[in-house]
Structure formats: C-alpha cells, structure tokens
Backbone:
C-alpha cells in the first residue's frame, strides 16, 4: 500500500462503463472492448457531449447578461448609478460561476474549489458593492462570461457536426431506402452539377459510407474530450480560486496546524514536568527535610535517607535530560543531523543503520523537523513494526531534504487510520513537506519524507 499525504487528486469517473465489468475483489474494471471501440457508448462520453451541447445556450445567456450589464454600467458611470450596475453585473457573473462549477463537477467530474468569498468590513449595500468591485474572483467570472461564448459556439458546432455526421453515415444502410421511395433518386447525393450526379446507391458505396460513418463515430468522443479540456482550463482557471488566494488559505491552514502542534507540545512538556521531574523533586525535598530532622537523633537513618535522595536526584536529572532532548537535543545543535540521528538510532530496540549524505546543514528549523520526524518513525519501528532491523537514509535533492526510514517488519502502516503518522504528516505539510508511506501487508515498510531545504 502506497500512501502520499497531501494532496488533491483530480476525481475519476464512475466505476462502470460500456463494454466492461467490475472485478469483484480487486476494484479494477476489466473491459471486453478496447477503449477506442467502447468510447461512443461510455457514460463519460455522453456526459461530455451533453456538456458541450449545453455550452451554447448557457454561453448565450451568460454573454448577453455580461455584455448588457457592463455596457449599461459603463454608460451610467457619469452618474452614481453606474457603480451599482457594474457591481450587479459582477455579482451575477459570480452566481453563474456557481452554476458552471456545478455543471463541470456533474458532467466533467471536475472538482473546482469555491473562490475566495467577499470580505466586507461593514454591513450594507455600499460595502458589498465595494467588495464586488475589488474582488479579483468577480472580474475573472466576468472574463469567463466573455471568453466562454465564442468557444461555446465553436465547440457546439464541431461536436454536433461530427456526432450527427458519424451516426448518420453509420446508420445509412438502415435508411437509404428513403431516397428511392420518397425523393425519386437512387440514394444520398454525393455530387451534382445539374447535368451529372453521383449517388450512394449500390451495396459497395453503402458499405463504404457506413465504414466512414464508423470512423467519425469512433473519433467523435475523443474530439469532444479534447474540446472539453479547454472548458476544464477555463472553469478551473477563471472560476476557481486564484493561486495567490489558494496559497493564502493553505498558509492559514498550515499556521493553524503549527499553532495546535506548538500548544500540544507545551501541554506535553508541562505534563511531563508535573508528573515526572517536579513530583520527584517535591518528594526529594520532603525526604531531605526528614533526613535533616533525624540527623541528630538517628544519624544512621539520616545517612540512609540522604543516600536514597541522592538516587532520586540522579533519576530526576535523567528525566530532565530526556525532556530537554525531546524539546531540542544539544547534539543536534552542536554536531548536526548525522550525530543526532545516530544517537536516536542507538536507543532504538532494533539495530538501525544510519547514513547521512549532506555536504552542508539545512536551516535550523528544517533540521529540527527532520530530527523529530526520524525520531517518531523509529519509535514506531520499536513499538509497532515487529522488525528485526531498520535503516535511516538522509540526502539532498536540489532544494529538498529527503529522509527515508525503512524496516523489515509486518507492514500495514497507514496514514489514513488516524495514527501518529497522520499527525506527523500534518506537521510536514505545515512546512510544505510531503510524507509518503509504502507499507504492504507483510512488509517491508518504507516511509519517505520530503522537506524544503530553506537555507
């Protein structure tokens, strides 16, 4: 099982189509016909053809509305009425954009996120008017309304001509009798100049006509598919969020993950201090107080209590060292990833081979994230994998830091199950990192992390 955390794949189409059946346990569909022959009968081809046919009436309505409202608004700009009319034009185009995204989602399987919503600092008509006029998504929707119309005319015409011509010629053997019976001619006229005429009326010509129609019929779905690719670009590029706004949303989400992670780490540190070293030091203070009271009455008992307190001091110091190492190990700051990861590997319950191939050190923040990523992955190896050995490899590819932890355990590690891997993947995503888990049943498990270098 290979899982990449991040991402946002384009949706597929339905699992069933013409000329095929579902393979019951594998989830794969096996077809009796090749793709070129079954394309005219697939549900996807019908949806795409329906999308292109709807392009023309929708394009006419959208273009008419946009041009009329913008022209009216521009003409009225000499008065105050022009501004709200222009805002109404932009608002109407945004509403059309909602319908177009829904149509693309239903017929093309194209998932397009909503553009950035309007943001107003004050309630009221004037505030909404200003927000509409300042919104880049509104102007992109207007541009879509203008550009979509000529493309709709072209794609509608080409698709309808190819579809009609293909099926008409393919079914010509079924209806050629109409010409001698009702039109007084031998068949479909291929050429005529008033004196001579060529008619498709003998068996050979009828067969060739049907074969030509078959070629057009088989080619039409692919032509329509190519045309809808332009529609996909228009809808995705003009009716979806801009790259800048999408990046802002992503950064806001990543900032929330970072804040939540930092808060969780602070709670963990507070809990470890309260339940560990702090409680031990409180008990140590009480024991030393009792030893002080017994110092004159029973020096031997006091010495024994001091000896026990000395042991508690060592344990508390070790707990504090472990806690400091969990916050940021000194060896990482002083000697870098190679030494720090070797120290982590030495504490793993299975033998771990560590290989770090870095000519220089990455940014300190990235280095810390890399260290804790490997630490958590090696903890998973110790606790859950049942492995006999593991390996850690670190290298650089251009401006990316690559980490890979592999073990020979039982496998079945999965990010989607909400385990510690999911939290780790969220932390990496917050800094534009990627976590890829390849863990088939029976092993081996290979986890690859990719981080920005940022130096």
Residues:
């Amino acid at each position: 099982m290979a899982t990449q955390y991040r991402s946002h794949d384009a949706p597929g189409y339905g699992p069933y189509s013409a000329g095929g059946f579902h393979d019951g346990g594998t989830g794969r569909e096996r077809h009796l016909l090749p793709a070129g022959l079954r394309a005219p009968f697939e549900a996807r081809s019908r949806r795409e053809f329906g999308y292109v046919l709807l392009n023309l009436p929708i394009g006419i309505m959208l273009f008419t509305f946009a041009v009329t409202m913008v022209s009216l608004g521009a003409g009225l700009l000499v008065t105050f009425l022009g501004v709200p009319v222009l805002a109404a034009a932009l608002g109407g185009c945004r509403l059309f954009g909602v319908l177009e995204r829904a149509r693309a989602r239903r017929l093309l399987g194209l998932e397009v996120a909503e553009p950035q919503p309007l943001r107003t600092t004050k309630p009221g008509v004037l505030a909404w008017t200003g927000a509409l006029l300042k919104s880049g998504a509104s102007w992109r929707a207007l541009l879509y309304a203008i550009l979509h119309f000529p493309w709709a005319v072209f794609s509608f015409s080409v698709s309808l001509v190819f579809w009609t011509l293909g099926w008409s010629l393919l079914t010509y053997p079924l209806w050629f009798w109409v010409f001698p019976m009702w039109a007084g001619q031998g068949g479909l006229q291929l050429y005529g100049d008033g004196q001579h005429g060529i008619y498709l009326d003998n068996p050979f010509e009828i067969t060739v006509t049907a074969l030509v129609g078959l070629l057009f019929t088989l080619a039409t779905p692919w032509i329509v598919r190519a045309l809808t690719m332009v529609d996909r670009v228009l809808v995705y590029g003009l009716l979806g969020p801009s790259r800048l706004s999408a990046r802002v949303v992503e950064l806001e989400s990543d900032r929330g993950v970072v804040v939540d992670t930092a808060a969780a780490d602070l709670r963990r540190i507070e809990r470890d201090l309260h339940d560990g070293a702090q409680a031990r030091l409180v008990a140590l203070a009480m024991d030393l107080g009792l030893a002080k009271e017994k110092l004159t009455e029973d020096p031997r008992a006091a010495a024994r209590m001091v000896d026990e307190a000395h042991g508690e001091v060592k344990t508390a110091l070790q707990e504090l060292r472990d806690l400091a190492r969990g916050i940021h190990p000194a060896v990482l700051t002083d000697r870098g990833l190679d030494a720090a990861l070797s120290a982590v590997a030495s504490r793993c319950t299975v033998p771990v081979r560590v290989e770090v191939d870095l000519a220089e050190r990455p940014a300190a923040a990235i280095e810390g994230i890399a260290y804790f990523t490997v630490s958590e992955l090696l903890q998973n190896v110790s606790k859950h994998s049942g492995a006999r050995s593991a390996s850690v490899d670190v290298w650089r590819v251009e401006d990316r830091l690559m980490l890979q932890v592999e073990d020979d355990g039982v496998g079945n590690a999965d990010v989607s199950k909400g385990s510690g891997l999911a939290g780790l993947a969220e932390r990496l995503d917050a800094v534009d990192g990627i976590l890829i888990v390849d863990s088939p049943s029976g092993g081996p498990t290979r986890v690859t992390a990719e981080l920005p270098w940022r130096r």
Summary: The beta strands are 2-5, 20-22, 29-31, 188-192, 197-200, 352-357, 390-397, 400-407, 434-438, 445-452. The chain has 14 helices and ten strands. The chain has three domains: 43-176+219-241, 264-327, 334-452.
